[in-house]
Amino acid sequence: MTTKPLELSMALSDNDRTRPIINGSTKNEGMLLRATVVHPSEMFWRQLKFADFDVSEMSMSSLLIAAAKGDTTWAAIPVFTSRMFFHTRALVRADRGIEKPADLRGKRVAVPEYQQTSAIWSRGIFKDEFGVDPRDVEWFMERTPDMSHGGSTGFTPPPGVRLNRIPPTTNIGEMLVKGEIDATLLYLTNTNLVDRSTIDISREPMVRPLFPDSLAEGHRYYAKTGIYPINHTLVVRRELLEKHPWLALNLYGGFLRAKESATKRAREILDSWVETGAFGPEPEKPFRADPLAYGVKAARPVLETIAKYLHEQGLTDRQVKIEEVFAKSTLDV
């Protein structure tokens, strides 16, 4: 007797590690995944507000914030579809005397959303590496309460943080070009329901990266800390997991096979880092472990760091334990 596969709706962003799942070239045993490609900003908003999909990527910060408040809708699977050195994506006005991260003190700095994962990482790294406390900055947030992730997780500005809401009549790009703000930690122009900036900043002579060589700064940070920041994890509706406990490891296995099919290209990129010489006399040292590794065991130091940053930045009332958010059967992988 043939068992009918479990049909699940799924939302993913399109990248090398998810594409084999999206196009069906990598299968997940016992299930039929009906994939929809959605921009992450919109995907997380839809999942946090409406729970539209059975399986999806999820903002690591919003998941931890929700867990701290007792929301157990989603169980995480240790699949990390987006990683980046987010602090290297900061943009600044060239006429504001901002030559290094420490110069952000006292400046007006924008974020699409204060609680988004990239902003958590950037603020945490700026404090740990460069001594810039979030309270040293005046913040401007683009997303409105009804169109933000924080609108579903009960976001309020942490004590001591100066946070201004950008009016719906303008956006980060326009304010940066006009000189109404001095910098932004992240700039998003992809069309989606949540973000609204559209200006091509690369054509604006008065706007430049905070780090002139962002690749070198990423190399420096990784060589020093061993941390490759995680942005997204995979989640499954917890009530489904309780009904079908095998889902967690089957999803993990399928996404791991998809990642392995993209490993060759990722290895080529990582090897190019070594060729720059940015790692000094032991260029092979950073690669003794896979920096893109899935699994709780390999990623625990990174996961615990963002949980720590969320608590330090006043977005959770405690440091959420990894065991609270990840499916129990995946804690040993």
Q: What would your notes on this structure say?
A:
This protein has 333 residues and is an alpha/beta fold. It has two domains: 182 residues, Periplasmic binding protein-like II (D-Maltodextrin-Binding Protein, domain 2, 3-Layer(aba) Sandwich), CATH 3.40.190; 137 residues, D-Maltodextrin-Binding Protein, domain 2 (3-Layer(aba) Sandwich). Helix content is 35%, strand content 17%. The chain contains twelve helices and eleven strands. The chain has a six-stranded mixed beta sheet with strand order 8-7-6-9-5-10, covered by helices on one side. Helix 4 packs across helix 11. The mean pLDDT is 93.
Main sheet: strands, sense, barrel: 6 strands, mixed
Number of strands: 11
Identify low-pLDDT runs: none
Structural Rg: 20 Å
Q: How far apart are the first and last residues' alpha carbons, in Å? A: 32 Å
Task: Identify the CATH homologous superfamily of the largest domain.
Answer: Periplasmic binding protein-like II
CATH architecture of the largest domain: 3-Layer(aba) Sandwich
Strand arrangement, major sheet: 8-7-6-9-5-10
Determine the mean pLDDT: 93
Please count the helical segments. 12
Concise structural overview:
The protein is an alpha/beta fold. The protein has 2 domains: 6-84 and 228-330, D-Maltodextrin-Binding Protein, domain 2 (3-Layer(aba) Sandwich); 86-222, D-Maltodextrin-Binding Protein, domain 2 (3-Layer(aba) Sandwich), CATH 3.40.190.
Helix and strand layout, with pairings?
Blueprint: E1 6-12, H1 19-22, E2 31-37, H2 40-50, E3 55-59, H3 60-68, E4 74-83, E5 91-93, E6 108-111, H4 117-130, E7 138-141, H5 150-153, E8 162-165, H6 172-178, E9 183-184, E10 207-209, H7 214-225, E11 230-237, H8 238-243, H9 247-261, H10 263-275, H11 296-312, H12 322-325
Parallel strand pairs: 1-2, 1-3, 6-7, 6-9, 7-8
Antiparallel strand pairs: 3-11, 4-11, 5-9, 5-10
Helix pairs in contact: 4-11
